[in-house]
Amino acid sequence: MTIATATPHDSRLCLQGFLLLDVCARLFIWSTSLTLTIATMTALNGWPEESIVGAGPRLAWIWGQKLTHLVLLFNLYYVACLVVLRLTVPTPKEGSYSMMPGSPLDRNLIYSVFIAVLTKARYHAPFPGFLVFHIANLPPMRWLMNPVFGPKSRSCYVLDPIIGDPHLTEIGRNVVFGFNSSVTCHTQQRDSITIRKVVIGDDVLIGANAVVFSGCKIGRGAVVLSGAVVPPDTVIGEYEVWGGLPARKIKDLPPPGAM
Hints:
17 strands; alpha/beta; five-stranded parallel β-sheet
């Protein structure tokens, strides 16, 4: 007797569709930013009159300055494109969504896919977009990025943390992220994806290579040690130190000035 087995779900088409969308979005953002940059430089008579070919030191310096202006404009337009495109996508609602083969794809997951593409473009900007991190965190573009693109943050960072779902991440004042630390507001199980907001309070320190998962709430003055993995829906109290894999409470810290 032959026992029928279910055909395993092949996700290649979905993933290939995501990659195609990623390619189209990146090319659109890059080409739009470059077009606007060139048009602005031309409108402002920003190009040197003499050709760069065979330039001496003086002309090379002039061309270098103009190309620097081009790079700065490109980065400004690049961040502006991210903001405008993000305005077209509704923010996904928190909840758990089925990923079972044959089940209909919830619209909130579709929104998440579009935002994920924009987030990838935000963190993996092409040359000459190496100033996207800086411009996204400095006024005036910060005033647009924070409420529209996310994360909703009252901190500024020396290093760019990996915020996988910036639209659902809230960060308080004076929060420090270590190198390669990350925050994600979605957790993927075998048959479902759960989307939950992450809230990080004031004066929190998150160490290098630490990972904070969906639904976590981290209280004021808490410390997440380097390499820690904070499981989904974890609540870390004020002035608590957590570490390990999975992260657990290690000790309490006195409030500042209580020593």
